[in-house]
Design a protein that fits this description.
- Two copies of one chain form a homodimer.
- With 146 residues, chain A is α+β, with helices and mostly antiparallel strands.
- The first copy, chain A, has a single domain, classed as START domain (Alpha-D-Glucose-1,6-Bisphosphate, Chain A, domain 4, 2-Layer Sandwich), CATH 3.30.530.
- A seven-stranded antiparallel β-sheet of chain A has the order 1-7-6-5-4-3-2, covered by helices on one side.
- In chain A, α1 crosses α2 and α2 crosses α3.
- Chain A is globular.
- Chains A and B meet through β1, β7 and α3 of A and β1, β7 and α3 of B.
């Protein structure tokens, strides 16, 4: 098993970051404009990108502290993995600890997703701090795989 | 053991990316301006940043294909880990597979370094493609840990 880990700090209240992770408006402002579905506990959120997409089941929510999704549809390598967002306040910062966990093998696609997650986390930070992120299809291109 | 993985594509020949990873001029153009030491096989390169730095022993070099460093001094969590750069051509792209391997524990500092490596890889891409990267002290701030 292998995990993708990231850490960013956002100059804002944890509640504002939490909102960007748990509402369709928030999610479509930093990850992909094509976000739909149910953000309630047990609901499934559908994220669509130009090449395909992911369906995430909302498995844990603690307001201002934790968001956890299970990947229930998407690329074969992603199915059954979990995405975990842990938030905490540190002075004027909200620290975001991100983990995309449970990859069966460190395949090349995992290398790509790790870098791509980092750029989307920076997009989340920009959205909350400035009001404008860089979601798909306006995301940062990192390679031939986009 | 835990690894940080990343993948980027650079629109340039592998030799140009290799040069940015194996010369003081190249390295100081995307990672940190304060880069000194010996880039030859078996040499030690000293990378210095505002908060501290890393000493990397050059343990493997295959022109246009592979660069591998061993961390011989720096933060305790980094000592004994390895940084591996694998390059290959894909049409007009050079694909860079990056691995910072052998972390003993997935400590919070590893989360930070993973995201920070991603932004430095984007700086490497910019340097090779445009002639100007964003090395320390002009690097992208991602959090309170910089």
């Amino acid at each position: 098993m292998a995990d993708i880990l990231h850490r960013i700090g956002v100059v804002a209240e944890p509640e504002r970051v939490y909102e960007a992770l748990t509402t369709l408006d928030g999610l479509s402002g930093w990850w992909t404009e094509k976000t739909s579905g149910s953000v309630a506990p047990g609901g499934v959120i559908e994220f669509r990108f130009r090449p395909g997409g992911f369906d995430m089941k909302v498995v844990e929510l603690e307001p201002g502290r934790l968001v956890r999704w299970e990947v229930v549809d998407g690329p074969e390598e992603w199915i059954g993995t979990f995405v975990r967002w842990e938030l905490r306040r540190e002075g004027e910062w909200t620290i975001v600890l991100f983990r995309h966990e449970g990859w069966r093998e460190p395949v090349e696609f995992m290398y790509h997703c790790s870098t791509k997650w980092a750029t989307y986390l920076m997009s989340l930070k920009e959205l909350v701090e400035t009001g404008a992120g860089s979601p798909d299809p306006r995301d940062v291109q990192i390679s031939d795989w986009h």
